[in-house]
Design a protein that fits this description.
Helices cover 44% and strands 15% of the residues. It is α/β, with parallel strands linked by helices. The protein has a 5-stranded parallel beta sheet with strand order 2-3-4-1-5, with helices on both faces. It has a 5-stranded mixed beta sheet with strand order 8-9-10-11-12, sandwiched between helices. Strands 6-7 form a two-stranded antiparallel ribbon.
Length: 464
Amino acid sequence: MGFIAREKDLAFFERCYKNRKAQLVVLYGRRRVGKTSCLREFAKDKPHVWYSCTKDTDAIQVRRLAQRISARLPETVRTLGGIDSWERALRSIPQLDMPGRKLVILDEFPYAVASNKALPSIMQNVWDELLSHEDVMIVLSGSSIGFMEDNLLGEGNPLYGRATGIWKMEPLSYSDAVKFFPSYTPQQKLEAYGILGGIPYYLEQFDPDEDVRTNVCDYVLARGCPLYTEVNFLLREELQEPSTYNAVLDAVAAGETQLGKIAQKGMLDTSSANTYLRRLESLRILEREFSVQMGAQERTKKGRGLWRVNDNYVRFWYAAVAPYVSELDQGDVEGVWEHVIAPNINDLLSRPFEDVCRQWVRRRNIEGDLPFRYRVLGRWWQDANEIDIVALGDRATHLLGECKFWKEPVDASVLSELEDKQESFFREGDGYLYLFAKNGFIDGGAFADGNPKIHLVEAERLEE
């Protein structure tokens, strides 16, 4: 399968490339999100030097980079002396034998800094003195989100304020992710995305010619396949205390959403638990969710908000794989599917379905296809009452939505419940009701009776 989606990401890099000023571009995002593939697609038709930094000594890094740069230097320059330091390597970039812009990509840049702490300062000096005045584009890419945001781009660091472009790569949206499965039904696409999310590496593991059941059994539950150990790998790669983080994640995935309960289940004090939660939030594995009407001041308080797993695959793994590792290690793949996953698939994937529906509302807002333009979008709850989707506009205009990942079509009772909540909590302003259904609506949704303020959205439309 060829390169899929990433049109906006590629457009950003093309704008930087065509800019007449010198470019120092920083690209970052979580592991497996597709940074390297996107950069390769961007650079494939352009003369460039590419160096993937590794966990090696500084001397080895310099030698490997020197080989790539020297291969692109004119013969007359190449014989004047070897490249034996990062500074010499960087200073040689303007002399690269390339037509037009000199493009240099340093992938996984944090690895290089780990073996040479002075590298950001060296790059700052060479950039200020030389490279910022040349026809160059340098891309620094990294998967360590904390390092890229705090140690590279953060105030007080050598490269602070030097970057001409900063791009954080996000997981693919639902409408892009399902392009990996062109022959799937809308329902199968929702199930695949609910399990894998928008991480391209995960999506690539599934065979688009096999159904969801076969793919889960072969590429998630089978001992030895990449996705079986992916979550443990992710925690070991990113975190210094994976066992403690695992306990925190296990608590959140099991349904604990409040700081105190998470700390109690993970056997931590609340201060420590909050630190671990924040770190997982920085990796975009967890998120702290607030009711859509909660004010900015309330959101700053430590105990406010509800913690939830933000990554579809991590959520699925903790719910359907981690508790059954003993059985799966013994080869009981079919048993776990038949007795654990298949009977509970709609419950397991209901929260990702809500995310898909919110993405749809967000796209419709951008396209101007909603009845009004909203200011804020999210989930709403108050005491025991909650609504899956609430979008609020000016003058109390609102959109209320319920998302049903049911095996059966949705009936009129769901609409009645939403109308009751609107009457109780959103009586003011002009309101619109949206129902989202995995498997459609009873009698084609005749219960909506053609009311222009009631919108029924089936699975087929969620790719729009």
